[in-house]
Amino acid sequence: xRARKIGALPVVEGHELVGIVSESDLLAALVELCNVMDxxxxxxxxxxxxxxxxxxARQLVERHGGSVAWMTAVRVxxxxxxxxxxxxxxxxxxxxxMFEEAGFTVASCVMxxxxxxxxxxxxxx
Length: 125
Prior knowledge:
Layout lengths: L7 E6 L2 E7 H12 L6 E8 L4 H11 L3 E10 L3 E9 L6 H7 L3 E7 L5 H7 L2
Antiparallel strand pairs: 1-2, 3-5, 3-6, 4-5
């Protein structure tokens, strides 16, 4: 659509026009599908270079009712591992405390917020 500068497409049933689908409609569907408007946290963790560390981090999040959107693991000097992950957690849980209690060192934590109805409305304009 963008390559041909088409802003909307017709929706037809048989030979009858029943509506249109715009770029905004498609973008809104993508945002909903990807859950990018959900509150998330991005954490940077350090731990011993243990092959099970990523599995342990994922299980920890899931055990507390959350989910991992993505995770990367990089080995660093000194037998350590650096994990970066984006998680969705119930509001009652503080990810920093959860990981520190499990033995991870939290280098940073950026906590997002849930989008409001106003945010969603302005993103659809």
